[in-house]
Amino acid sequence: MREKRLNQQWLKFRQLLRLKRNFFLLLLPISFLLLQLAKQSSYFAEKVFVRFFYHPWSQFLSTLTGILPFSLAELIIILGPLILTFLLIRFLIRSIKARENRYIVVGKGIINIFCGISIVFTLYILGCGINYYRYPFSYYSGLTILESSEDELYDLCVSLTLRANELRDSISSMDDKGIYVSTMSTKELMKESKKAYQKIAKEYPILAGKYPSAKPMIFSRVMSRMELTGIFIPFTMEANVNVDIPDYSVASTVGHELAHLRGFMREDEANYIGYLVCTASDNVELNYSGVMQALIIAGNALYDKNKERYMEVRNLYNEGVHADLADNSAYWSQFENTIVSNTVTMMNDTYLKANNQEDGVQSYGRMVDLLLAEYREHKKEELE
Predict the structure, then answer these.
(1) DSSP letter string over 248-298?
(2) pTM for this model (two decimals)
(3) How much of the chain, in percent, has pLDDT values that exceed 90?
(4) Residues 275 and 367 sit within 8 Å (Cβ to Cβ)
């Protein structure tokens, strides 16, 4: 009797092993192996993976999801918990009803879970995980990253301030409080950003490609509560943007998220690419957004070095720049130090550290090195 029961259990186990879906489980070790190869060789990540897989895959999938006027990722995030709850309830009901075949039902359920994990992990690795180990953008920009003095950082901030002031003076669209208000609709802004990418791609071919526009998030206010300005979803290849934030910062955020879509996942590099794209645009509003982003990040770095010199730079801001920055501070202050924002920041910090960005959320400030390198190049050209 016991031997017969063991034989039955073995037959059921073999039935589970023969399931075609088990092949999905092989994706997990394969994707893990690819990630390890990328960690060991940036050449593999850049010259093999990005060139022969990521670029065609990202353009293909983003083109498909780009047909939708809304963010598919946002819809999945909303409906996902409901779908998972339904599947769990259905699994429990089937497990209870199954008597003789309960072993098979439970076994299939466990296999389905691991197949799902394997597919999600693989899509993540292929969609962005390996890209954290590709060549840095400085490899394509030709910029030389050097240690810089406090004086150089100060001069950079002054230069950015003068540029911001000039651009702000050329913008006449303001509300009754003197705060910049974009003259473009969200759709128009997305089109201008695409045009700017097409233009910058002539100088940096690595940024070329037929990609769709970024997607404005319907629940942008919720993103603000999490202190997020945008998010790239590798599973759908969508660059999603919070459009509830102050107008001057939307364009640079679009540029940043589209940089992720083009395979540059490091936050510092995406910030710099967003700045490059905006300042290359023929649209003054995009120019202003890019320069303001650079000014804020460089200014924060100067503040950490020397608060007095930072205040000297702030005193150079014109009335319009002051008004926009004050509005930005007021906007974000309402979301600071909440349970939601602190939790998301902690999760984001952990995520970045786990993906070759040891400084965590602080890596957002390393854009300054690229800005300083660019500033030195411009000074050389002026002297020549």
Answers:
(1) GGHHHHHHHHHHHHTT---HHHHHHHHHHHHHHSS-HHHHHHHHHHHHHHH
(2) 0.88
(3) 64
(4) yes
